[in-house]
Amino acid sequence: MSAAAATLVAAPRRSSWFRRLLQSPSGRIGLVLTGLVVLAALAAVAHLWPYDPVAQHPLDALQGPSGKYWLGTDQFGRDVFSRCMEGTKSSLRVALVAVALASSVGTIAGIAAGFFGGVLDAVVMRLADILFAFPAILLALAIVSALGSGWFNTAIAIAIVYVPIFARVARGPVLALRDVDYVRAGRVLGFSSPRLLFRHILPNVAAVVIVQVTLSLSWAILTESSLSFLGLGTQPPEASLGLMVSDSRALAASYWWTLVAPAVAITIAIVGLNLLGDGLRDALDPTRAGD
Amino acid sequence: MTEPIIEASAHHLVDDDVVIAGGRLPRFLRHWLVARLGWSIVTLLGVSILVFLVLRVVPGNQIDAAFGTEAGTLTPAQHAALAHYYGIDRSLWSQYFSWIGSVLTGNLGLALNTHLSVASMTGSALPVTVELAVLATIFGTVTGVALGLLASSRPNGVRDTVGQSIGLLALSVPGFVLGTAIVTIVAAKFNYFPNGGEYRAPWQNLSENAQQMLFPALVLGIAVAAPVMRTTRSAMIEIASRDFVRTAYGKGLSPARVLLRHELGNASIPIVTMVGIQFGYLLGGAVIVEQIFALPGIGRQVYQAIEDREYAVVQSTVLVIAAAFVLVNLLTDLVYRRIDPRVREQ
Amino acid sequence: MRRTRIRRLVLVALCLSLLASSALVGSSSARTTATGGTLVIGRTADVNTLDPQKATAFQAVQTLGLIYGTLVQLDSKLNVVPGLATAWKFTDNSQTLTFTLRSRVKFQTGAAFSSADVAASLNRILNPATGAVSRANLSDIQSISTPNARTVVLHLADPDVPILAALADLNTAIMSAADIQSGSFTTHPNGTGPFAFSSWTPNQSFKLVRNKTYWGGKVPLAGVQFRVIPDETSVVSALKANQIQMGLISDPVVARQVKGGGLKVLPQASLSYHTLMLNDRHAPLDKLYVRLAIQCAINRKQVLGSAALGEGQVTGPITSPAYRSDPNARPCPTPNLAKAKRFMKAAGYPNGGITLHTIVETGEYATAVAEAQSVQAQLAPIGINLDLQTLDSGTYVSRWLAADFDAAIALNGGRVDPDTMYTRYFTSTGNLNKVAGYSSPKLDTLFAQGRATSSVPKRKAIYTQISKTLESQGVWVWMFTAFDYYAISSKVQNFIPMANESLQYLRQTTLG
After folding, report:
1. Do A134 and B322 touch (CB under 8 A)?
2. Which end of chain B is more exposed for a tag (fewer CB within 10 A), N or C?
């Protein structure tokens, strides 16, 4: 557990990790791409699009990219560019909410299980195992059926599928740290559990969780796509990148832009988020400061 | 559905039971195994309850699913007779216990519309999925580890960028887009689509089976490769900075020896964890890939049964999948014990 | 130094993985294709039951329709023609129906067919314990008598002319009395049709062989094999790779991908109709003017264009060729927004503000969600907001049956006889009337007249009136009928697709 112990040095100051983030190429590219995606989403929130993304122009249906419609139109004559902006917003919203829910609940459960051990640990880990071994589609179908469809319930469904992963990921390092001399010493000195948790354990779990968060965001965007395909995700006429991709699957053989545009948008979002995650992890982890 | 992806790094996901395996290894191993098996049974019991309840939460029932909108033309007497036939007129308790009771005596139940036994359906579907999962895992692991090594050989360098980019692209392409693209393009250009033929098991016709497995294993393998690559990269980078690696170089050991024995050896712990998890998810069936490539696997069996609201089929199949999942986890942990130096050194 | 080693290692690993994949390809030998006279048909779903009287999913109906025979059957123009019965007549004010049965007919297992089999089959449907859906169409049967082995007499409670067309339906299939007794048909179907059951591997293939004793003469094909290929795009690929010779496709977008390579597509207009069902008992749809406003705001041609690339026909309520409704005999044959707004005003909603909870099915047919979005966009200008709820088919069906919706995007099955098609919906005692959400004494009377009339021109007048009533009351929004696509290789000859999706003409199909 030497590595874990080595990470137990004082957390670096804020300014230094941000500088380190900017120093690494992956951090820089990640920041730019993610910025682009967030910008597109914000523009959609502010309705700064060339056309209303749900407005249909039947006479202009299935036109290729042009000066009028930058990325062409879909079968209803809706502007694909505007829909990509709107879709980025929806996909990001579902992914962020799902991962925020999953990571907070999962991480807390995992840390608690690892730190307190015993019955709590056994119960949490068995629940995680049960969810792990359960087909995700069935779980999502049941949740959306019970709660009704809509983006928030989709997010909840995705979150529930992902909670056990965060629980496991967070529990590992806590177990390793629990018995490290430093923490033992703290216990002997009479430090309270919350203080030990927040001061010494949480910062060490953070790096692991951040990486997991960025990967989960990519996965959540793709999962939302599968769920939308089954009618369990974003509700038409709203757009999400995943829904656009699954909708245009058959159409793409004749009208390529209907598929390529949202697929490229997904790629930009996922690559950006992951690079940013990598950069953040490297920047936050003191042992890698020298790399 | 896309498989969830986990990135594990060197010290995550280590099961404490494994790590604290003191000096009395054989006896402890026995205890550990018994405890693990005990927990596995608890897990499976939990899964059985969850799947049973979840199915009852999903709207619809077997009668409506079997007859579609025509179910509306049934008279109350007909409806009652059918409800009795499907067993949905009984209390939930009675439904659960009669199902779990028959499962415990080795009877997985019957699909009530087709009169097929779940055991025989699963018997033919499970090998398809297992083969697909094994092939995809092998392809994904080999490619993922190779790319991970490439990327980690020079963090933030050109190779890293190339390796990372391939990994991230693989991560961001939905399996159904890649699958459809292959199916459409290969068939249009080469008139080749082996999956259009009748499915052949490897023992029926090895070459035909290999052709039918090629593309789906490739599509799933790429999905496996991405997280494996990332796990390998981060684990290798982390390990390279450790004292014992520096010491090994200092002792004048050859770089290859250090790389293989010390670095990859240590990095293999998170990699094995990662591969185990991915394999476990693939066992749950890759519904969409199985649909596109017309493979009669377990994922399609469950999905179809959900659509048909064939409760016994869904419940028993999910239980079988969960059992396989639990088994894979157990095996992963055993592999762990073999390769974890902290255990070996004892 | 160290990095060079790593590069080599990586190269070796990559080569190994490539070798492994190429070894898989290298070991390939010549593929077998369907030879001789077996026609392989690709379709997206499997048979879900082997019980012909309970089959409703169209894959099961198509397949079992090749194995089983019915008393009467339909020709390619949907006229009722002799089947297992060679002649029939209505007597006693259309309350007695007598069939003369075909002689020297055998079941596929070898047993001879007689009136006892007909009686046993129909009685099985009438027995509530069976749970057969076609019971509703035969409920007028009071008793069945079999004076001799070649004669069957149905005694009806009320005049019921449409019962004849109902007896052409697979759900009234004639099974062997012995099979009904033993229950063997649940695993081994046995009928009098042109093809006999051979084997079934669920989720993979369903194999049939020529029935050597078929009463209709020699069947050219040695066999038919149905193969399950869940994705329509993959069905097209299988066709291009010559793994199948016929593909059943419903998505017009996919059907367009079939071209070249000696392939062709036979589009067949379907009896099924795409409609926006309105629950006329839910406020504010109980107001005639609101319904008429909806009628006038909807541009059916545009829905057809957006959802199905224009492949189909705008339709009125009745889709059967003999009784087809005139799509121009409706309140607004072409959309008229100004008129729609006037109707909204007359209904008391000058500014709109109406929300309709609309259920939409996903997964069953390709165009549902697109239709919903198109209709939604068209109703927005008159202030009607369709709140779309896309549901998986199991959930949709249950909500539909419970009439738990304001509006429903639906693809409803058509029938040859307009009585069988709509009595169950629009008569006050119809068993789907709750779902239909509308009935009136006028419609009840008209339907009763139709049932008691046997002259076709007179019936035609009655059903034209029914159709007109349904449209002028704005009961539902009938939109269009689409095509079923039969993509075939040029080797397939003499196959005739049918509007009711039956594959019965495989009995005369050859593989050139």
Report:
1. yes
2. C
Peptide bond into A237 cis (omega under 30): yes
Those residues with Cβ within 8 angstroms of residue C134's Cβ, 6 or more apart along the chain or in another chain: C53, C125, C166, C169, C171, C172
Cβ separation B43–A130 shorter than 8 A: yes
Distance CA C9, CA C253 (A): 47
Nearest to A249 among B4, B176, B325 (CB): B176
Q: Alpha-carbon distance A83 to A40, whole Å?
A: 11
**Least reliable range by pLDDT among A89-98, B222-231, C111-120, C438-447:** B222-231
Between A9 and B127, whose confidence is greater?
B127
**Distance from A180 to chain C by nearest Cα, in Å?**
34
Question: What are the residues facing C197 on neighbouring strands?
Answer: C208
**Short-list B273, B300, B303, CA closest to B124:** B300
**More reliable by pLDDT, B282 or C28:** B282
Cα distances from B55 to residues A142, A226, B50, C194, in angstroms, run: 7, 20, 8, 41
Looking at residue C4, its pLDDT comes to 42
Contact of B281 with B299, CB cutoff 8 Å: no
Q: What would the two tokens of residue C387 be?
A: 């709140």
Q: Take residue C59 and report the two structure tokens written for it.
A: 């894959």
Pairing of strands C205-210, C195-201: antiparallel
Residue found under tokens 């329709």: C65
Q: What residues of chain A lie within 8 A of the CB of C366, using their CB?
A: 250
ipTM: 0.85
Tell me the C-alpha to C-alpha distance, in Å, between residue B147 and each of A278, B164, B265, C476. Answer: 16, 8, 17, 60
CA separation for the pair C207, A68 (Å, rounded): 54
Residue C260 CA to residue C47 CA, distance in Å, equals 31
- Tens digits of residue pLDDT in B201-244: 999 999 999 999 999 999 999 988 988 888 888 888 877 777 77
Name the neighbours of A, counting chains with at least 3 Cβ pairs within 8 A: B, C
How many Cβ atoms are within 10 Å of C3's Cβ, its own excluded? 12
Output the pLDDT for position C364. Answer: 81
Instruction: Return all residues near A178 (Cβ < 8 A) that are at least 6 apart.
Output: A114, A115, A117
Q: pLDDT (tens digit, 9 = 90+) per residue, A133-143?
A: 787 777 877 78
Residue-wise pLDDT tens digits, A33-79: 999 999 999 999 999 999 999 999 999 999 999 999 999 999 999 99
Token pair listed for C98: 């007598």
